[in-house]
Design brief:
There is one protein chain. The chain is an all-alpha fold and about 80 residues long. The chain is built from one helix and no strands.
Amino acid sequence: MDDMFASEREQALEARLIELEMRVSFQEQALAELSEALAEARMEGSRNTDILRNLLDDLGKVRSALYASDPATEPPPPHY
């Protein structure tokens, strides 16, 4: 009777161990996927930062070009 109880207990422990190993395996896979997604998001953020910096530089150049002329040298509007 004790041998039967020990065998059932060993089987229960083995089943529990297998379940825990499967959970760890799934968590490792999920962690790897999340790590990859985070790396991609960081790269995209870096690219977006570069694009925004270039756009702001271009906007500054356009503003400088538009407002660089002296208003006194501008011809009067046509309705004067």
